[in-house]
Structures are given as C-alpha cells and as structure tokens.
Write a structure and sequence with these properties.
Its main location: membrane. By secondary structure, the protein is mainly α. The protein has one domain. The chain is 81% helix and 0% strand. It is built from 5 helices and no strands. Helix 1 packs antiparallel against helix 3 and helix 3 packs across helix 4. The longest helix has 31 residues.
C-alpha cells in the first residue's frame, strides 16, 4: 500500500510534465503549491483508507489481537505514507522521462 504513494505520485508528475499538462495549469488560477497539496492529500487519503480497510478486513477474518494503540498505528501509517509521497515527489521533480523515473523508483524500492 505504501509503495503506491511512491509510484502513484512519481508517475503522475512525470506524465503531466511529458503531456504538457503542467504548462496548461499555468494558464489557470491554480497555484503550484495548491496542485502539489492536492496530489499529496489525495494520495494520502487513498492510502490511509485502503490500508484501514485491509486492516479491518483482516481483523474481521482472522480475529487477531491488537497490541498497542490504534492511534500509534495510524500515526506510523501517516508518517510512512508522507515520507514515501515526498520521496516520489523528489524523484519525479528531477527526472524528465518516464523510463528514468521508473528505474529510479524501482531502485529506491
């Protein structure tokens, strides 16, 4: 689940750059920070929702015992997702082609 943050954000930014979507966004009132915040927020919500549903489904099916706090688990999940999102943004901001980005993301993984 967490590596979808890395690949999801990394490929999207490079594909947008390659298809000139980022240049077209300059003509709109959307600022660059708003675009990046939307990318980060959407990916974070998707990963947390999917990870939570997988955790709840496994708890329902396997009925395991949770040691520790659910809040600590949520905190670790959010911090892990944010770190991989930022790593994906870093790699995608420096590379121009999808092939190079794919290789770099696989190398990091």
């Amino acid at each position: 689940m967490m590596f979808s943050c890395l690949f999801g954000v990394g490929y999207v930014i490079v594909r947008y750059r390659k298809n000139m979507v980022l240049k077209r966004l300059n003509a709109t009132p959307v600022k660059a920070i708003e675009f990046l915040a939307a990318q980060i927020t959407s990916r974070l919500w998707i990963v947390i929702a999917i990870s939570g549903s997988v955790f709840a489904g496994c708890d329902f099916i396997f009925d395991f015992y949770m040691l520790g706090s659910f809040w600590n688990l949520l905190l670790v999940a959010v911090l892990g997702a944010m770190s991989l999102i930022s790593l994906g943004l870093l790699l995608s901001s420096r590379s121009r082609s999808e092939e190079l980005t794919g290789g770099l993301l696989n190398l990091v993984t």
